[in-house]
Structure formats: structure tokens, C-alpha cells
From TrEMBL:
<keyword id="KW-0560">Oxidoreductase</keyword>
<dbReference type="GO" id="GO:0008678">
    <property type="term" value="F:2-deoxy-D-gluconate 3-dehydrogenase activity"/>
</dbReference>
<dbReference type="InterPro" id="IPR002347">
    <property type="entry name" value="SDR_fam"/>
</dbReference>
<dbReference type="InterPro" id="IPR020904">
    <property type="entry name" value="Sc_DH/Rdtase_CS"/>
</dbReference>
<dbReference type="InterPro" id="IPR036291">
    <property type="entry name" value="NAD(P)-bd_dom_sf"/>
</dbReference>
<dbReference type="InterPro" id="IPR057326">
    <property type="entry name" value="KR_dom"/>
</dbReference>
<protein>
    <submittedName>
        <fullName>2-dehydro-3-deoxy-D-gluconate 5-dehydrogenase KduD</fullName>
        <ecNumber>1.1.1.127</ecNumber>
    </submittedName>
</protein>
<dbReference type="GO" id="GO:0047001">
    <property type="term" value="F:2-dehydro-3-deoxy-D-gluconate 5-dehydrogenase activity"/>
</dbReference>
<feature type="domain" description="Ketoreductase">
    <location>
        <begin position="11"/>
        <end position="180"/>
    </location>
</feature>
<dbReference type="Pfam" id="PF00106">
    <property type="entry name" value="adh_short"/>
</dbReference>
<dbReference type="GO" id="GO:0051287">
    <property type="term" value="F:NAD binding"/>
</dbReference>
<comment type="similarity">
    <text>Belongs to the short-chain dehydrogenases/reductases (SDR) family.</text>
</comment>
<dbReference type="InterPro" id="IPR011286">
    <property type="entry name" value="2-deoxy-D-gluc_3_DH"/>
</dbReference>
Length: 254
């Protein structure tokens, strides 16, 4: 039956940035589809862990600050996940950060921090988890891209650069790993009502201009992304790889 191909029972998913917002919704959505969860976050992620546990699935928490974590730190996190829950079948590189400043004045530290979280950690975790997936001939890696994987944005040069790079990295890894059973895709959320967009929503003029361009007529919610992550993590998406899928209420087609 077709619905059986969406079942994630007994799969293990590692989700970064899972304490709140999109990451929390993704983790809970995967658990509701049957997956056990490893929550990698710089904070405690207590609320997310409780929500996962309430579905009856196993949950393990790992603390890492992706701003400062080395490749070795992240490889060790993947090893810990496998030791605790037996595998990493699904990796969701969700954690992200954004710093706003005019390009001519953009601080070097802000550039470095954003690239460390949004790009370096994505590669290092994908590489570490990918090795295990390739060895057993199956796996799903899902990166979180952005509308700014397609556009330039305003006042966010480091974020835009990182999200363009995530889209490119997704395609590069997909090319190398598809024949060995590992798919690599990305989801590009549109304008979501999360912490990252709080400054935009607080600016009445900017918020109005954004809303006018969204054909769906509303800001997205964290729950709006759950379905596409479950799909990409499942056997239903076995022949989908290298895709960057917008979940944007129609923003890009306007």
C-alpha cells in the first residue's frame, strides 16, 4: 500500500537545531511517522524531547554548539547517536543562524559564525553520517535551504551565501551518493513565523510587502514543513535526490 512507504517505524533520525521552531516541528513530525530521534542542539531541547517521547518513540539528546564545533566534534556526535540508538538512517541539517548588517559593514565575526553553522556543520555532519549510510547502502539526508538559496536578500550577505552553498552542496552530494542508496535533498522554507523572521514581522512596512507577495496570503507555520520532511525521509522518496523543494506558499512563482 502506498501509505506504507511513508512509514518511518524504527528508523533513527538526527535533527539539528531541534529545540524550537522548524526543527522542533520536523523532529515531532518524524516521530509521529515512526522514527526514533536524536536531538542535536546547543540547548537542552527538553520540550522537543518530551513531545517525541509522548509519541512512544525513543529520544536521545546531544549538546553541541555548531558555531564552535569541529569536524571531529560532529563526527563524535554521529558516533554517539549510533551507539545510543543503533543507527542514523535520516539526517536533517536544520540548525541555522542569521546576522543582519549592510554588506559594507558586515562584521567578520558574523560572517564566520553564520558560515560555521549554516554550511560547515552541514558538510561535516553529512560527511560523518554519510560514511555510515554509504557503508550499509541506504540513508536520507535532508538539508534546510531558504528562499535566499534562490534570491539575494537584503542586509544578510553571509546568510544568503550560506544558503546558496547549501543548495549546491545538496546537489554535489546527491550526485556522488545516489547510486549507493543515499539520497540528499533540501527543503527551502518560505517566510515562516519563526524567531529568524521576528525582525521582519516587527517591521510593519516590510511585513506587509512580504505578505502581499505570498499567493497563499499568510506567513507559513512550522507545521507546514512537516509533511515534506516525512516524505523525503521515507521510501516514498527513494527516487528523489538533488532536489531543492520550496515550501513557500507560492512566493517564488509570484
Amino acid at each position: 500500500m502506498i501509505l506504507d512507504t511513508f512509514d518511518l517505524t524504527d528508523k533513527v533520525a538526527l535533527v539539528t537545531g531541534s529545540r524550537r521552531g522548524l526543527g522542533q516541528a520536523i523532529a515531532v513530525g518524524l516521530a509521529e511517522a515512526g522514527a526514533d530521534l536524536v536531538l542535536l542542539d546547543r540547548g537542552d531541547a527538553d520540550e522537543t524531547a518530551a513531545a517525541v517521547a509522548a509519541t512512544g518513540r525513543r529520544v536521545h539528546r546531544i549538546r553541541r554548539d555548531l558555531t564552535t564545533a569541529t569536524a571531529e566534534d560532529l563526527a563524535a556526535a554521529v558516533d554517539e547517536a549510533i551507539a545510543e540508538l543503533g543507527a542514523v538512517d535520516i539526517l536533517v541539517n536544520n540548525a541555522g543562524t542569521i546576522r543582519r548588517a549592510p554588506a559594507a559593514e558586515h562584521p567578520v565575526q558574523d560572517w564566520d559564525d553564520v558560515l560555521a553553522v549554516n554550511l560547515d556543520a552541514v558538510f561535516h555532519l553529512s560527511q560523518a553520517a554519510g560514511r555510515h549510510m554509504l557503508a550499509r547502502g541506504s540513508g536520507r539526508i535532508i538539508n534546510v535551504a531558504s528562499m535566499l538559496s534562490f534570491q539575494g536578500g537584503i542586509l544578510v550577505p553571509s546568510y544568503t551565501a550560506s544558503k546558496h552553498a547549501v543548495a549546491g552542496l545538496t546537489k554535489a552530494l546527491a550526485n556522488e551518493w545516489a547510486a549507493q542508496g543515499v539520497t540528499v535533498n533540501a527543503v527551502a522554507p518560505g517566510y515562516m513565523a519563526t524567531d529568524n523572521t521576528a525582525p521582519l514581522r516587527a517591521d510593519a512596512d516590510r511585513a506587509a510587502s512580504i505578505l502581499q507577495r505570498i499567493p497563499a496570503g499568510r506567513w507559513g507555520t512550522a507545521e507546514d514543513v512537516q509533511g515534506v520532511f516525512v516524505f523525503l525521509a521515507s521510501d516514498a522518496a527513494a527516487y528523489v535526490t538533488g532536489a531543492v523543494i520550496p515550501v513557500d506558499g507560492g512566493w517564488l512563482v509570484r
